[in-house]
Sequence to fold (515 residues):
Amino acid sequence: MSSAPLDLLEAVSRIAADVAASPAVVLVLGRPGRGKSTLTRALGERLERESGASLLALDPGQPSLGPPAAFALSSPFSLAFVGSTDPMAVRLTALGELLRLVRIFERARPGAPLVIDACGLVANAIGREWAIRQAEASSATHVVLVEREAELEPLARIFGARRALRLVRVRSADEAAAGSSNVRRRARGERLLAWLEGASERRLSLASTPVLGAPERGLGALDWKGRLVGLLDRDGATLSVGLALEASESELSLRAPAFEGEPAALRVGDAAWDETMKTVGRRPFLEAQEKPRAAAFAIREKPAYHVEPFAVPGDDRSKRAPGFQVHLANGLFGDPLVHVRPLRDKDGILLDLGRASSLPVKLLHRIGLVLLSHAHVDHFFGFDELLRALLGSPREVVLVGPEGIAAKIASRIGGYSWNLIESDSAYGITVSRAGQLSVRAQGAKRPSEATRISSRSSSFPGAGRASSRSGRPRAASSTRASASPCAPFLSGTGTSSRSPTRSRRGSGSRCGPRR
Fold:
């Protein structure tokens, strides 16, 4: 067939005439607001009358069949709950359920045409990849691109080169327009209410019913309410889609249309009903299953004494404590280095600085605080490795150690030559009371051969206080760090025997070349 753009009615006529000659699978692709669903509906209705075709709806965000967060086949009517209004959020589940519905159609309607209404994600690289996988999984014979001003040219080149495919390009109608995100959410809400009309309430045992799609630690009672739920049979096929009403530790109450059989499993996702706005949107799972207490981090529902492996199965160096993930990086008998990650914060914490090469660099890039007990080589050896990982990074790391740690840090850094450091990629170290040091990789000038560290004069509550890059306070001990000579790239905010340049961060000064 010609790849020249066609009008909608002309495209429906030409595709219907071509499909009538042989069994076909027609995949319709297009961005939101281009008239894709209008063309799919017109083509499906015509082919249903003429050839007994079926419609497969693969847009869980704006479904033309069935409830939101699900795929649906018109004949024989079948559902596949994917759990999200965005198929890319559940792409493995989405691809598997697409294959399941295609198999159901092929067994029930051999030789009949199939028209597929794909989702509107086609414009970027992920969307193009998903379009290709839909065509391959469904064994598409025809691909229809509904576009405006050749916006799907990359897809046209890909599909146009495939001998087994016939490409049809359709001009979008001028009056076609995409609705806002609020309009789309309200439309999903209306479709869910229509789906649940006449539905009855059911109760299921959570103790004996497996739950798919939930986070590893499960869902709390409050997290179930309003979430869309897929009820699956023993083979994993979707029996129905319901709305969770309330839950306890052992039982779930939900509202769902009638279906045959008993559910053998449940599938959940991020799709949820908003009772206030009467919409369906994405709702992430709760990080904690109860409200955070007065402490800095939320405590999960599991008992405080319970710990479990979280990194590598069988690796007893990694444990999960309430509110934290804790990893003994070098094992029980290696250099002391403990990586602590608060579950509700992105910044990690290091306890002591033994050999740090045992940690991935991506974890070192996310360190926000280092607590150093003393400067024995096995506790301090990893400082150079941490510093090396931070070079060229905009991160700021606070190091808190015992009295005299400033001089020791100065000695470590002074052992290197920095003559090749570019002026825009150097680092700096700020020294505060208690030997608190802040290593940052931005804004420093090329270092001079000899500079000094000086103590910061800012006060700390009780002992000391400094702010990280995110603005949250960091506690430090009350020991005062004496001013000590240091090597290049050390900066402070007090007086110094030399004349440092002014800091870009405002008050204070920075060591650097003398002007």
The radius of gyration is 31 Å. Residues 374 and 491 are 23 Å apart (CA to CA). The longest helix spans residues 91-108. The longest strand covers residues 238-247.
